[in-house]
Amino acid sequence: MNQKGIIIYFTAYGTTKKYAEWISDEIDAEIRSYREVTDSELQASDFLIIGSFVMAHRLIISKWLAKKEPLLKNKKLFVYSVSGAKPGARELDNIFKVSLPESLLNNAQTYQFGGKMRYEDLSGFHKLMMKIGILIEKNPEAKAEMKNDIKIAKDNINREYIKPLIEDFNSYIRN
To answer: Crossing angle for the helix pair 124-136 and 140-151, nearest 10 degrees?
Structure first.
C-alpha cells in the first residue's frame, strides 16, 4: 500500500515541531506548518499527522481544523497534543473532544505528548492568558497548580511519547 500524507504542526516555541521532526525520522513523511499546507495537498493526502500545542484546554489548531473539516473528514488522522501537563493528566481528558469536529474525531487516533514551559520565556500574550486562567479557575487544587506553573519550569519533552503513534501508523500502513 503506497499511502501519501503530511505531518502538519502548529507550534509556538518549537516543541510541537520537534515532535513532528522525530515522527518524520521514523516514517519518512514531509513536515509542514499548518500555514504552509495547501488545500490541494490536503486533498491529495490519504493520511495526516497533526500536532498542536494546548492552550486553555484546547488544541490551538482547532479553528484551522474546523475550517478544513470538509477536506479532512475522509482522511485517516493521527492527532497529537503537546502541553506542559504530563500525558494522561486529568486536565487533558477532553482536549480532543472539544478541539476536533465530531466528523474528524471519528477518523482520528489521538495522542498526548509532554511539552515544556518556562514562564519567563512566554510571550506577553501567553503570560496574560495564564494569569487570566488562574483568575477564572474555580478548582482550588487546579488553581494552586497553575500558580506553581509560573514559579517552576516544566520540561516533559520525551521522544518515547511518539512510540504509540508510530506503532499505530505502521499498523495503518500494513492494512
So the answer is: 160
